[in-house]
Amino acid sequence: MRGGPAGDEKPIATLPLKRFDIPAGPLDQALRLFEQASGIQIRLNLPSADVDGMNSKAISGLYRPVDALALLLTGTGLSSRTEPGNVISVGIRHAEQVDVSTSVASVNLQQFTQPLVDTAQTITAVPEFVLSDEAATTLRDGLRNVPGISMAAGEGGAQGDTLTIRGFNARNDIFLDGIRDFGSYYRDAFNYDAIDVLEGPAGVEFGRGATGGVVNQESKQPQLSEFVRGTAQFGTNEMRRITVDVNEPLKALGTGVAFRVNAVGTQTMVAERDVAEVRRFGIAPSVEFGLNTATRAEIQYLYESENTTPDYGLPYFGAALIQGAGRRTYYGFAADNYLRTNPDIVTGKIEHDLGVHATVRDLLRWANYPRDIRITEPQINTVPVLKYNGIGAAATAVCDPTIANTASTSACYPISTPVSQVQVKRNQLTSQSTEDMLWDQVSGEAHFAVAHVGNDAQVMVEGGRERSDPKRNGYTVPFVSATNPNPYDAFVPLAAFTNLRTHVASESFGVGFNDTVRLRAWLLVAGGVRFDYFSTQASNAVSGTATVPSYLSPTVERVDKQPTYRASVVVKPGNDGSLYFDWGTSFNPSAESLSLSGNNAVAAPEENETYELGAKWNFLRERLNLNASVFRTEKDNAHETSPNDSTTVDTVGSYLIRGFQVGALGHLPHRLDLVLGYAFLDSRLENSALNASPFTTIYQAMLKANDARAQLAPFYINPNGFPVANVPRNSGNVLLTHSLWRGFVGGFGANYTAARRASSGALVALPTMVGPVDVTTIRVAPKAIQGYWIFSAMLKRQITERLDFQINVDNLANKFYIDEPHPNHLVPGEGANAQFGFNYKW
Questions:
Q1: Of 19, 71, 79, 29, nearest in space to 52 by CA
Q2: Could you tell me which residues are beta bridge partners of residue 538?
Q3: pTM here?
Q4: Which phi and psi (to 5°) does residue 635 adopt?
Q5: 5-62 pLDDT, tens per residue?
Q6: Strand partners for 268
Q7: Sequence-separated (6 or more) residues with CB below 8 Å from residue 391
Q8: Burial tier of 690 (Cβ tally within 10 Å: 0-12, 13-18, 19+)
Q9: How far is CA 286 from CA 193, 246, 290, 356, in A?
Q10: Per residue in 782-796, pLDDT tens?
């Protein structure tokens, strides 16, 4: 319990740095010197005679006690674990023993000063041992262990990892070691120590966005121990993947210097999705100076190169997934569709301890995210164009499938058309873009007492520049059969659209302050405030003699100056548990994703407010964590595209999401790993233009004219509000592993996602006839996808002390489901697939 007043007992794992000067020699003498220097009692769980003859290495410098003890025990075959009452037990290392480093109750984030159990927010850590059990290869794989998160398909202007947290878009809320990682790329898991998901408002800690929460990727850090680790995986669908993790202390450069490098190479097809293929390479070297000293410095580099054949899946036909086209159907161009990304991220960090009560740090990052894409999005238009011509007149629907082969965008199929007669538009999404960022983050934290009241305070100042420079080329290509497309067609455009180039540059800074006051040993009160300045300029240009569309405007700019707030109360019935109440705000500016144009430049930021009530408890010396929370988040001033003019953005709506969530994470004896989560989300669009169908104008005209037909059309407006897009009402996950027999370890996993809408405002008209149609004969349906269960299994066995063999099978039942929805296309999840491989540690 860091920063408490004198007399409070702190968890051993969180004790501050202490100076140790222990010479090399007999282990029993080294342990006695450790007790004197640390004030921690050592309890031997083996006869003292067994310690005779064991020797320890010398250690000298500032170390946290648990790290100092780990160095003393290196090479002895002994391990340590914490006990109640400021005691550490030392005994023979067994497979089922858990070292103090295996705590499931911590994250590595400079934005927080308290242990997780005392932090008033739902925070889920997906540690490395879970990623290893699942043979997870991407960020998306890891996030499937967190309830309340839904995956989504890439937008036309942005690819890569897209997700919602508690119902709110979080594509721009992905962080890497505490700094925003906003590039459009698919993130590999090869350099992860853990994935942290903070659900609920995080604007005070992270700045703009962070409405439903944030995702933080924890990078692997250099260590003072020497080791080599690696994996070799092979599987169905021509899957092959190699990872390497090498850590080496650089003693020639002095004590406390270490180098670590991780690398990955992977290539695989996608089960049940012909043509789609993933090809990726990555390397992440890092070097740190001053490990376990008062002054530490580190430089990290991350490079990921991807050259993938992308998959935008299957089209809608009406309001649902097309039926009769086949699960493996691929509508793109195998030889001419590509997704190429090459992010470079360089991070420098320096931190200094001012005694044991204060720390200052500075993180500086330069990041460059090049991207070159050409992706085919399959589309079928079933929405008729309706016109209301006055009192008593019929609405006319224009829906003519005969013009499909001319590649006209107005081609439309009645829902009754046999799928075998439907032609699919191959919408080409193209972009050449480079996003870059230069960012500096300075923070300081102090732990002190005023009038015997403990304070844990933090100040953070950060800011920098972010830029985006996409160039989009448009092509018209021939339509293709819905049931029998040829992915090996040559890419021969019928026409080319005007090239559009957009340059967006943002300059921003934020300053924030947080303080946790320990009024009693059992009562903590925290508060924080942050102010953000966010200035964005965008310029648009087209090639040739064409002019920029009016809604884009040649040059636009926007400046937002916004405060965010947070307050919480934590009550601790015991040292290992807490009950809390949290309130916080956040905001979403128009240019949040570095996209600004004339239609949204005048829109004020969306404003969000969240209330959360929860409980957390650690068991079995922090090897098992249980948590539960109920919450309510409301978004006001919501930005919505006008249903009457797609070039206009209105700030008319408010969204409400309420729910509760429970979770468990354990790393226990007998190889028992446990991950369990469930989230219930009740979402609603309130006061929203999207609550109306695309025929709002017709309906309102009827009301204004007292047209009797208005009384016969209650389906035009949903008075209770439609659900928010990509928000399943129920979702959950479970992972269990356990020792079996003869050294085998088995595991079973399951994920459930309930039905969800693909878009808050995407309503599809389903006419019963073509030509002149009375509006009362038209039904309106939302675009939606079905829920699903997915199951997985794992089997592992240690072959030698350094080598084990592992098999993972995903989607055991070969379930056909939609994993990533989008208003215009649907990406299926991967079919049944298996991978086997070897894990090596030395």
A1: 29
A2: 504, 556
A3: 0.84
A4: -105, 125
A5: 333 445 665 566 778 888 878 888 888 889 888 888 888 876 666 676 677 877 877 7
A6: 278
A7: 705, 707
A8: buried
A9: 14, 11, 14, 26
A10: 688 899 999 999 999
